[in-house]
Design brief:
Elements (H helix, E strand, L loop, with lengths): L15 E7 L8 E3 L5 E4 L5 E2 L2 E2 L3 E6 L6 E8 L5 E6 L2 E7 L3 E5 L4 E7 L6
Antiparallel strand pairs: 1-11, 2-3, 4-5, 6-7, 6-10, 7-8, 8-9
């Protein structure tokens, strides 16, 4: 009766997929309460210090010291201008804002990729 037609189209699968994690955009609190609920200290009113906000993706090039080298990760800002950077390999503490370069502003999400498992499907 009918002959089967051969399909010449190929199906491709991605090598990696985008992974998105909700990281939040910070909190609004005027004070930090103690265990009884009374105000213990006043918090700073601004979320940005020296042009950076907590959660920004930055690259740091440190010329000397314990953490000398290049680092990339999310920054935690401090009013003093010495920030912490959370990298894939750990925490880099006390990085001065002069050594940072902005890569991406914080939008409340963390982005990454992971390899796609090709055995499924």
């Amino acid at each position: 009766m009918g002959e089967l037609a051969e399909s010449t189209s190929l199906v491709s699968h991605p090598n990696a997929v985008l992974v998105v994690i909700a990281t939040g955009r910070g909190v609004y609190a005027r004070t930090t309460p103690d265990k009884f609920g009374f105000p213990r200290l006043r918090r700073p009113r601004q979320k940005q210090h020296h042009g950076y906000a907590t959660g920004d993706l930055v690259a740091a090039s440190l010329p000397s010291g314990k953490y000398r080298g290049h680092h990339m990760g999310r920054v935690a800002v401090r009013a003093t201008g010495r920030f912490n950077i959370r990298t894939a390999s750990g925490l880099v503490q006390g990085v001065h804002h002069r050594h940072l370069r902005m890569l991406k502003r914080a939008d409340g999400y963390g982005y990454g990729t992971r390899p796609e498992d090709s055995s499924t499907g």
